[in-house]
Amino acid sequence: MDAIRFFRIYDVGKEIDINLLENALARSYYTARANFQRIKPKSIRIEEPPLLLRMHPTDVTMNGVRYDLLVSARIYDIGAISLCFVYESSDKDEGIFEEICLSFTNEELISDLFSSYLHTLKEILRPHISDIAIDDTFYEDYIIYFTNNHEELIDPAVLLLGEKTRFSHQMKEEILKNSLSYTEEDLTILSWNAALLKNPEVPTDLFDLIEYANVQVFELRYYDQELSNKMEKMYQDIERADRLTWLSRMRVYHQIMSDLMEIHAEVSEITEKVNNLIKVTEDVYYARVYATALKVLRSQLWSDSVNRKIDVIQENYSMLSDEVRIQHSNFLEWIIIILISIELVFAIWEYIR
After folding, report:
1. Do 192 and 253 fall into the same domain?
2. Residue 275: DSSP 8-state
3. pLDDT tens-digit profile of 226-282?
4. Residue 40 belongs to what H/E stretch?
5. Which of 19, 156, 273, 324 is deepest in the core (most CB within 10 A)?
6. Residue 234, CA distances (Å) to 268, 308, 341 in order
7. How many CB atoms lie within 10 A of CB 92?
């Protein structure tokens, strides 16, 4: 069997109570929690397994051929939502898997389906998640190609780059450098926007691991953008405050400092949860797959960017705190000078009298 899994990940902008949501949705929908099948539960630690929600299947027609798609959504407590469309090949598709894959990667119909099902998912979640807000322009796409047919000729570079051409030897080496195998019969190749899995059995655990890695990196991207927006607003507020009177400026500074501390605490907490979304402890191969996926997706780059911006926020808080303290000291000095002056005037007045 051959299969294609299309993922698109969004963020709802807030943390989600998965237990509460599961109890509410289970009355009307098929729901389940993620679990790994090949290994012992203690080999992979997930603080709060995401909630799987089965949605109505759909189909798409390309070049006069109809393709049936299974649809599901995974909802994470950190605020991420992953929509997934799955195409599973039939006997008539044997030998043309590569051609089908390229048709899907160049087809806008899949993007339209994501938009439609995102709207449906919003309506399902709206009664259970207050003030739900999903930016449908900010997302992460990823594709997983799977085949258990080792005899079928598939060029990994063509699939993972989504282009039918004769790639150079150097380009193919670059694609294949992130290849891993557990046995002589399986192969996992990871790239920044797609993965190819060859396995005699359906590796559902690897599907999940790759999805989790994408969710983790996407959430880092999301909070990196949020911090950029907050920092821009912070600089605008400081610039506006500098044009105010002394007393008004101090009030604005205090409000900015309060906002900065709130942002610092909120983002530090959520990024800690993101970085600890999943821990692979005992299974060496799964740990390698997950670590390689994070490396290919440049997790460290986004993590460093978030940490730098948190440091900048902390530095700005310190500078504003110093400015407020200096201004407060200056204010007290002027009060003392005024009191001494008043006392001196009274003393002179008494002397003259």
Report:
1. no
2. H
3. 888 888 887 887 777 777 776 677 777 777 777 777 777 777 777 777 777 777 777
4. none
5. 156
6. 18, 16, 40
7. 8
241 by Cβ neighbours in 10 Å (0-12 / 13-18 / 19+) ranks as: middle
Residue 274 corresponds to which tokens in the numbers above?
């993101």
Q: pLDDT per residue over 176-195, tens digit each?
A: 899 999 888 889 999 988 99
Rounded CA separation 4/156 (Å): 14
Q: Which residues pair with 318 in a beta bridge?
A: none
In eight-state DSSP terms, residue 49 is P
Q: Do 52 and 87 fall into the same domain?
A: yes
Same domain assignment for residues 247 and 130: no
Residues 6+ apart with CB under 8 A from 292: 178, 180, 190
254 and 117 in a single domain? The answer is: no
Tokens representing 243?
Answer: 């044009």
pTM value is 0.84
Closest to 293 in 3D by CA, of 307, 278, 305: 278
* CA angle in degrees (0–180, nearest 5) for 274-111-81: 25
| Phi, psi torsion values for 325, nearest 5 degrees | -65, -40
Number of domains in the chain: 2
Residue appearing with tokens 């909070």: 223
User: Does residue 165 share a domain with residue 273?
Assistant: no
Looking at the structure, do residues 179 and 293 belong to the same domain, yes or no? no
DSSP string, 53-108: EEEEEEEEEETTEEEEEEEEEEE-TTSEEEEEEEEE--GGGTT-HHHHHHHHHT-T
Q: At a CB cut-off of 8 Å and minimum separation 6, what does 338 contact?
A: none
The answer to whether 237 touches 290, Cβ cutoff 8 Å, is no
